[in-house]
Specification:
With about 425 residues, this protein is mainly alpha-helical. The protein folds into 2 domains: about 350 residues, no CATH class; about 70 residues, no CATH class. Helix content is about 70%, strand content about 5%. The protein is built from 20 helices and 4 strands. A two-stranded antiparallel ribbon has the order 1-4. A two-stranded antiparallel sheet has the order 2-3. A hairpin with a 3-residue loop joins strand 2 and strand 3. Helix 6 crosses helix 12, helix 8 runs parallel beside helix 18 and helix 9 packs antiparallel against helix 10. This is NCS2 family permease.
Length: about 425
């Protein structure tokens, strides 16, 4: 039955492998259950309701991706969109969270229309293969950078922006322990090495007294009644130029974040064919846009493709069964929140660093000998970690691409869609960074 639905044999995977992959993705992504409610609470959304909404919306998003697209990719509220939702719109513009949810819902509906007309699919197909490799590698560096920051190996610096963390910090030792252990297990080709590394690291942190033992195991999930349906009730509030600009910003950021992440994840999973085409990409976009709608109705910031899915892909996840398992784990997690609260980011940091190493392998596939390719590819690769934004890094590279191709007299190789993207990304920067 499972093989018939998810084509496990065709993907050269098994139920056990998909389960281990899902566990790895879930543990890597579980922090969203506590970080997202804190962000949404800054906008005025009750933290308890936000916790339950985060779990339910993520679970439904994963089910949609697994069943519609058969991709091993989790959909969850994204921190970038969540921060824009809470701090820029609600706090900065003083727009109520109910109205902001309505703006997310309108953007989601527009997203579905764009998907139905296959515009997103056309955009992804138009991106040159070298740039797709650069996107995948850039996401890898971005993920590794997140891991280094979460593990406090890299810290803020007033003089140099970032610096090496202090070895007197116990969090650094927990991260280094997990990183060394996982590297050794990976080098030995030990099955489930990333997941095992996280579990052993958590135990190590508890033994040395740096990770608290859970005070309980089971607790009831708060009601999401305060947020459910508010987006629908307040959709009539979207009646000013300012609010339509908010809708446009949500649309642009989620469009390019998802496109970039999907390219990176499918490249990592080996799903891209020889012609650079991504199978079922239209279905993946439909699942993503539908999940964005259900998230808005439930009461959370926009859902998007989770970069933490790469940890599960690294463990062999290749079909939608991985996403289904992740969704089930998120539903179960609602009653086991005391256990999840003791897993700090230092435990998942080594997994993200290792995944960054694996995804960086796409750098070797880029034609660095051609300067007109090297420049936009390089801007994409370094732009993602340095701006902490997949969409910004993507924009830098795709703005540079037509310029270098025209300068090298290879303008005939640039498709009309790439010129359109050149203009769109300039507008994107003007809208999101002024």
């Amino acid at each position: 039955m499972l093989n018939k639905v998810f084509h496990l044999q065709d993907a050269h995977t098994t139920v056990k492998r998909e389960l281990i992959a899902a566990l790895t993705t879930f543990v890597s992504l579980s922090y969203i259950l506590f970080v997202n409610p804190n962000i949404l609470n800054a906008a005025g959304i009750p933290k308890g309701a936000a916790f339950t909404v985060t779990a339910v919306a993520t679970a439904v998003g994963c089910f949609l991706m697994g069943l519609i697209a058969n991709y091993p990719i989790a959909l969850a509220p994204t921190l970038g969109s969540g921060a824009f939702f809470a701090y820029n719109v609600c706090v900065g513009m003083k727009i109520s969270w109910e109205t902001t949810l309505a703006a997310v819902l309108v953007a989601s509906i527009l997203f579905i229309l764009i998907t139905i007309f296959k515009l997103r699919e056309i955009v992804v197909d138009a991106i040159p293969q070298d740039m797709k490799y650069a996107i995948s590698a850039g996401i890898g560096l971005f993920i590794a950078f997140i891991g280094l920051k979460n593990g406090q190996i890299i810290v803020n610096s007033d003089s140099t922006l970032v610096a090496l963390g202090k070895f007197s910090n116990p969090a650094v030792w927990i991260t280094l322990f997990g990183l060394i252990l996982t590297v050794v297990l990976m080098a030995m080709n030990f099955p489930g090495s990333i997941f095992i590394g996280m579990i052993v690291t958590a135990i190590f942190g508890m033994i040395i007294g740096q990770i608290p033992l859970p005070h309980g195991i089971i607790s009831g999930a708060p009601s999401m009644a305060p947020t459910f349906g508010q987006a629908v009730f307040h959709i009539k509030d979207i009646n000013t130029a300012q609010l339509w600009m908010v809708v446009l910003t949500f649309l642009l950021v989620t469009f390019f974040d998802t496109a970039g992440t999907l390219i990176g994840m499918t490249e990592q999973a080996g799903m891209v064919d020889k012609n650079g085409k991504i199978p079922r990409i239209g279905r993946a976009f439909l699942a993503d846009s539908t999940a964005m709608v259900e998230g808005a109705v439930f009461g959370t910031a926009p859902l998007g493709t989770s970069v933490e899915s790469s940890a599960g892909i690294a463990m062999g996840g290749r079909t939608g069964l991985t996403a289904i398992f992740v969704g089930i784990f998120f539903l179960i997690s609602m009653i086991f929140s005391p256990l999840l609260q003791v897993i700090p980011t230092t435990v998942t940091a080594p997994a993200l660093i290792i995944v960054g190493v694996l995804m960086a392998s796409n750098l070797k596939k880029i034609d660095w000998d051609k300067f007109e390719i090297a420049v936009p590819a390089f801007l994409t690769v370094v732009g993602m970690p340095l701006t902490s934004s997949i969409s910004d890094g993507l924009a830098l590279g795709l703005i540079a691409y037509p310029i270098t191709m025209i300068a090298s007299k290879r303008y005939k190789k640039v498709t009309p869609m790439m010129y359109i993207l050149f203009v769109v990304f300039i507008i994107f920067f003007l809208v999101t960074n002024l």
